[in-house]
Specification:
about 425 residues, three-stranded antiparallel beta sheet
C-alpha cells in the first residue's frame, strides 16, 4: 500500500469474463435461509444505531478507553456521543454491505454543524471512542466532524485519536509546552485542539509532523519520559477496548502480529455473551479471570485468521461449524470446524514466523505500563489488571512456541510448514 501510494496509484480494477460458480449453490441458499432470520433478529440494535450503539455499554463495564486510558469511566460524556444519539439528532441512512442481514453501517446525510457540513460515512464505535472519550470531547458534532476529517485525510481514526490523546496528556503534565506545539495549547475536551492536530498531522506541518509518526516514534523523539504515556504495542496504538475489562485482551494485544489490534482475534466477545460450542467455547468465560484465557486467545486468533482469509465479517457469527458448511458448499472440499481452525492456526503461525525473522520475540509481546499497572478505583473494571506474565508462558506452550515466543520446528512441521521449518535460520531454531 505504501509503495502504491508513493507511485500515486489510486486503485486496481479487475474485470472477469466468466461466471463465478460454487459447488453447491442450493446448499448455500438453504443455509442462508436458515441462518439469516436469526442473525437479523439478533442485530436489531446494531442495524438501527450502528456499532456506536455499544458505547454506553462499554462505559458501564469499564471497556471504554477514556482520557488516554487513564480514567475508568465517563458517565457524564458517554451518553452524549454514542450511536443512539447520532440517529436521534442527525439525518442518517443505512450503509449496507451487499445483501447483509446485519446492516450496521451508518451514513450521515447533509447535516450542517457549527464545524462544517457532514455528508459521508458516520463514525463507528472505535472512532467515537478515539475521537471522543479518549480526548474527553462530548460534543457529538465535533466528534463526527473529526471523523469526517479523518475520512477526507485518509487517517486511521484509532491511531489518530489515540496519538492526540497522548499529546494532550504530555501537555497537561508539562512534558511538552507551547514551544513544542508551535503555540498551540492542547487541552482535554477541546474540539479545536483535535481538529487542528488532525490537519497538522495530515499535512505534515509543524508539531503535526511529529505526531504523524505515531505515538511510539513521537515519544522517542520528544523524550523526557514521554514513552510512559504512549499506549501502544509493537508501534500500533491500542484499539478502543480495555484489557482491564476483559483480561484476554491483554494477551491478545500483546501477541497480535501487527500490534494491539482487536481484529486479530476478538477474544473479548467470548468474555461477554458470545459462545461457539463447535470450537470448544460452550459458554462465556469470566472477564476478569486469567485461567483458560491463553487457550481462548489462540482459538480467537485462529478463528480470526480463517475469517480474514474467507473475507467474512466479524459480526457474522453462526458458529464455526456453519462456516465450514459454507466452505464445503462453495469449494466442494469437505472440511469441519476443526479443519478451518487448523488452517487459521497455520496462517497465524506463519505470520508470527515472518515477525520472528524481523526480530520479534518475547521482548515485544508486552503491554504498555499504564495498562499493566494502573487499576481503576471505580467503573466497571474496578481493581482489575490483566496479569500478562502468567498467561503468556501458557500461551507459548499451547501454541508450540519456545519461551522466547519462537515457533519450534516441530510445530512448523505439524502444521504442514516443512519448507519454513527447513529454511529457519540456525540461530532461530528451537
Amino acid at each position: 500500500g505504501a509503495v502504491m501510494g508513493s507511485k500515486n496509484l489510486k486503485a486496481v480494477a479487475v474485470w472477469g469474463k466468466g461466471a463465478i460458480t460454487s459447488h453447491n449453490p442450493e446448499g448455500i441458499r438453504a443455509l442462508n435461509m436458515s441462518l439469516g432470520p436469526g442473525i437479523a433478529a439478533n442485530s436489531i440494535g446494531m442495524r438501527k444505531y450502528g456499532t456506536g450503539a455499544s458505547l454506553d455499554y462499554g462505559n458501564r463495564v469499564g471497556d471504554l478507553p477514556t482520557r488516554n486510558w487513564g480514567q475508568g469511566s465517563w458517565d457524564e460524556g458517554a451518553g452524549k456521543i454514542g450511536g443512539i444519539k447520532i440517529v436521534e439528532t442527525m439525518k442518517t441512512r443505512k450503509s449496507v454491505c451487499h445483501r447483509c442481514p446485519i446492516a450496521c453501517g451508518k451514513e450521515i446525510v447533509e447535516t450542517p454543524t457549527k464545524f462544517g457540513m457532514l455528508n459521508g460515512r458516520g463514525p463507528e464505535y472505535e472512532s467515537l471512542a478515539s475521537l471522543g472519550s479518549m480526548v474527553l470531547v462530548d460534543d457529538l458534532e465535533a466528534v463526527c466532524y473529526a471523523n469526517e476529517l479523518c475520512n477526507l485525510y485518509g487517517l486511521d481514526t484509532i491511531s489518530a485519536g489515540a496519538t492526540i490523546a497522548f499529546a494532550i496528556e504530555l501537555f497537561e503534565r508539562g512534558i511538552i509546552t507551547e514551544k513544542d506545539t508551535d503555540g498551540l495549547r492542547l487541552s482535554w475536551g477541546d474540539p479545536h485542539t483535535v481538529h487542528r492536530l488532525l490537519y497538522l498531522m495530515a499535512h505534515n506541518e509543524g508539531f503535526g509532523s511529529i505526531l504523524g509518526l505515531g505515538s511510539r516514534e513521537a515519544a522517542r523523539r520528544i523524550g523526557r519520559n514521554a514513552e510512559e504515556y504512549a499506549v501502544q504495542v509493537k508501534g500500533m496504538e491500542m484499539a478502543m477496548h480495555d484489557p482491564r475489562a476483559r483480561s484476554s485482551l491483554g494477551l491478545a494485544y500483546a501477541t497480535a502480529n501487527r500490534g494491539a489490534c482487536h481484529l486479530q482475534g476478538q477474544s473479548s466477545i467470548f468474555e461477554s455473551r458470545a459462545t461457539d460450542p463447535s470450537i470448544g467455547i460452550p459458554e462465556p468465560l469470566p472477564p476478569f479471570a486469567t485461567e483458560g484465557k491463553a487457550e481462548l486467545v489462540i482459538k480467537s486468533q485462529s478463528l480470526g485468521s480463517a475469517y480474514d482469509s474467507l473475507c467474512l465479517c466479524r459480526y457474522f457469527r453462526p458458529g464455526m461449524d456453519k462456516v465450514a458448511e459454507y466452505y464445503s458448499y462453495v469449494t466442494g472440499m469437505d472440511v469441519d470446524a476443526a479443519g478451518l481452525m487448523e488452517m487459521g492456526h497455520r496462517i497465524y503461525t506463519l505470520k508470527r514466523l515472518y515477525n520472528v525473522r524481523c526480530g520479534i520475540s518475547r521482548k515485544d509481546d508486552v503491554l504498555p505500563g499504564r495498562i499493566a499497572t494502573l487499576a481503576f478505583p471505580d467503573g466497571g473494571s474496578r481493581g482489575n489488571l490483566p496479569f500478562l506474565g502468567r498467561m503468556l508462558s501458557e500461551y507459548y506452550g499451547l501454541q508450540g512456541w519456545s519461551e522466547d515466543g519462537i515457533p519450534t520446528t516441530h510445530t512448523l512441521r505439524s502444521l504442514g510448514l516443512e519448507p519454513e521449518a527447513e529454511s529457519m535460520p540456525s540461530h532461530l531454531r528451537r
